[in-house]
UniProtKB/TrEMBL annotation:
It holds the Pfam family Ppx-GppA_III. GO terms for molecular function: guanosine-5'-triphosphate,3'-diphosphate diphosphatase activity. HAMAP family: GppA. GO terms for biological process: guanosine pentaphosphate catabolic process; guanosine tetraphosphate biosynthetic process; nucleobase-containing small molecule interconversion. This is Guanosine-5'-triphosphate,3'-diphosphate pyrophosphatase. Its EC number is 3.6.1.40. The gene is gppA. It is an enzyme of class 3 (hydrolase). Residues 317-491 form the Ppx/GppA phosphatase C-terminal domain. Catalyzes the conversion of pppGpp to ppGpp. Guanosine pentaphosphate (pppGpp) is a cytoplasmic signaling molecule which together with ppGpp controls the 'stringent response', an adaptive process that allows bacteria to respond to amino acid starvation, resulting in the coordinated regulation of numerous cellular activities. It catalyses: guanosine 3'-diphosphate 5'-triphosphate + H2O = guanosine 3',5'-bis(diphosphate) + phosphate + H(+).
Length: 504
């Protein structure tokens, strides 16, 4: 008798799809719900540049209509495998503005065999915020910005609730054609684009500036492109205004779009990058933004999660940690043991030294609980394996910058410390990242016995940023020679970094 070895197939009801017909690109994302988590199993993105076909008479030309329909033909086949009730198709700014939008939507619905909804600017902003909120952690009030091809959405909200939102008729496609005529990248063209954007933003700025927000998040597009450039140029940091000014000058130095070459800028975004950059500069200046990080989601994620109303999203960070602990077979008791010791050290550190600039506690908790991620590969270099893995797995609830911080901590939680990694951090957070590395390394050493109720009451005292003292009850270290020896080795590792550690 032959027994089938095929694994059980997924139920089709587990598959969901969102189609976003944007002014610059059309997107299709397909997800699968598994054990309460959402897994992306397919993404398709095509540069349609629908907004470029919108003339002064607000009519879409035949070429742009055809580009859009051809793209949807590629989407259509994939959507056939997904239940109709699990699909949402929406269109945004360009089809809101086009007088002949019905011509496009009528044929698009025939191609997709599904209803297409042209959503309002306010609804687009609301869905963007929900997509950001579902994939980012609640850190109080959040300012969310999404620069699209023909519109820009600005939202202030708290946790899952948008508080105030607007959609402005400015985007990277429309501004390219309006302010960078003949593809010229000049200081005058940038000034005109920034001024035009600021005029629109200034009309609504007061209602956002008056809010005290704890974080500013950029949803894909231009902010994502800028982050990729910063990483390629060796800068591990949030987006800041001085970086934007520097990128503007790099664009001007290139003189034309044909000659625009910036290390880290993808070819697919080259033509619309300067206009998006100009809009972002205007937003930073008018809304008094100090720094911006990249969110984990936007419109498409908002559409997906809107269909999953039963999803439990009370603590997205802990849900992410628990899923990775299960997937990588991490010792749960040891993870909590290291986390508890790390927090004990962190709290003593915080009482004596400034550890601001980043969400240090959140990164430390995640790194402590996931520091053994690489053990399922092998022991000797498990810190390197773990750092590599955590640089690529989804970290819902954390920004890309925080994920990089968690990766850095895991990579350096044992053995040799890599001094060059701290140089990638902005000066405001460099000292904090060094302190977090030291805390995690000590927590792992003090938990090396993998045993509860072993540690006595001990103190961490800080003379200055570099000189740390661990103080135990008299005779305790002598009675525990393993930990004493590990701490002695740690003194040497930290000494090589120019850090002083004493243990008594």
């Amino acid at each position: 008798m032959i027994t089938s070895t095929r694994l059980p197939q997924s139920h089709p009801e587990e598959l969901y799809a969102a189609v976003d017909l944007g002014s610059n690109s059309f997107h299709l994302v397909i997800v699968r719900v598994v054990a309460g988590s959402v897994q992306i199993i397919g993404k398709v993105k095509q540069k349609v540049r629908l907004a470029s076909g919108l003339g002064d008479n607000m009519m879409l030309d035949d070429e742009s209509l055809e580009r859009g329909w051809r793209c949807l033909e590629t989407f259509s086949e994939r959507l056939q495998d997904i239940p109709r009730d699990n699909i949402r198709v929406v269109a945004t700014a360009t089809l809101r503005l086009a007088k002949n939008a019905q011509v496009f939507t009528h044929k698009a619905e025939q191609i997709l065999n599904h209803k297409l909804v042209v959503i309002s600017g306010e609804e687009e902003a609301r869905q963007i915020y929900l997509g950001v909120a579902y994939t980012s952690a609640n850190q109080g009030n959040s300012l969310v910005i999404d620069i699209g091809g023909a519109s820009t959405e600005i939202i202030i909200g708290n946790d899952m609730e948008p508080i105030h939102l607007v959609s402005l008729n400015m985007g990277c496609v429309t501004f390219t054609e309006r302010y960078f005529v003949n593809d010229v990248l000049s200081a005058a063209n940038f000034e005109a684009a920034v001024s035009a954007a600021k005029e629109l933003v200034d009309g609504v700025a007061d209602k956002f500036v008056n809010f005290d927000w704890q974080q500013c998040l950029g949803a894909s597009g231009t902010p994502q492109a800028i982050t990729e450039i910063l990483v390629a140029q060796g800068i591990s940091d949030a987006i800041r205004l001085d970086y934007l000014y520097n990128l503007r000058q790099q664009c001007i130095d290139c003189a034309t779009l044909d000659h625009l070459i910036i290390d880290g800028l993808e070819e697919s975004r080259r033509l619309i990058f300067p206009s998006g950059l100009a809009i972002l500069i205007a937003l930073f200046e008018s809304l008094e933004i100090k720094n911006m990080q990249i969110s984990g989601g936007a419109l498409r994620e908002g559409l997906i999660y809107g269909m999953l109303e039963n999803m439990q999203q009370n603590d997205r960070r802990m849900q992410t940690i628990q899923q990775h602990m299960q997937h990588f077979h991490i010792d749960i008791e040891q993870a909590h043991r290291v986390k508890d010791v790390a927090l004990l050290l962190y709290n003593q550190l915080s009482a004596q030294d400034d550890v601001g600039g980043v969400d240090g506690e959140a990164m430390l908790v995640a790194a402590a609980m996931l520091h053994e991620t690489g053990l399922h590969i092998e022991y000797k270099l498990h810190h390197k394996h773990g750092g590599y893995i955590l640089g690529y797995v989804p970290m819902v609830g954390y920004t890309n910058l925080q994920r990089d911080g968690i990766k850095t901590l895991v990579l350096n939680h044992r053995q040799h410390i890599s001094p060059e990694i701290f140089e990638q951090n902005h000066s405001e957070v460099r000292a904090t990242m060094r302190s977090l590395v030291r805390v995690l390394r000590l927590a792992c050493i003090l938990s090396i016995r993998r045993k509860d109720n072993l540690l006595p009451v001990f103190r961490l005292e800080i003379d200055d940023e570099e000189n740390w003292h661990l103080i135990f009850p008299q005779g305790w270290l002598k009675a525990h020679p393993l930990i004493d020896a590990e701490l002695a080795n740690e003194k040497w590792q930290q000494h090589k970094m120019g850090w002083q550690l004493s243990c008594e």
